[in-house]
Amino acid sequence: MNYPQIQFSEQLRCAKGERKSEIDLYQLQELFNISAFWAKGRSVEDLGIAIANSDPVISVCDGEQLIGFARATSDGIYRATIWDVVIHPDYRGIGLGTKLVETVLSHPRMRRVERVYLMTTHQQGFYEKIGFQSNTTTTMVLHNQSNLGYIPSEEIQLQESLGG
């Protein structure tokens, strides 16, 4: 491991909103399979969709090898959520995870956000060192809406107007 080769980079967008430089989705899939029990088995196609709908997307590489990743979604002012923070096991314990989260938080899309959320199963202590606090009052989840029989309000209005 040659630490001076480690590079942090943002997946930038072009004027059209498309990613300027693409992350290697196969390496990302492998990184998740090795490093993240909660993300094992994600498809390359789904990872591409998640990245396309996230900003910022930060990757960490040692040479050409992807060794770290994180992404966020945000409205840029009130709320943001950090997702999929992962560092390859061989590179843990040297500060890369902290630097990765700090890089996400310092991004212009995140800097002014009033509240930044994240979910973690076993790493509360790590995030507390960065400044996150436990929050048991606002966490709720709605699982796959299609399984719950959810009908978007536009469809309900259309059905009502058609007499359905």
Automatic annotation (TrEMBL):
InterPro entries in alphabetical order: Acyl_CoA_acyltransferase (IPR016181), GNAT_dom (IPR000182), NSI-like (IPR045039)
Organism superkingdom: Bacteria
Keywords, alphabetical: Acyltransferase, Transferase
Domain N-acetyltransferase, chain residue ranges per copy: 15-157
One Pfam family in the UniProt entry: Acetyltransf_1
GO MF term set: N-acetyltransferase activity
Signal peptide boundaries: none
One GO CC term, this protein: cytoplasm
Protein name: GNAT family N-acetyltransferase
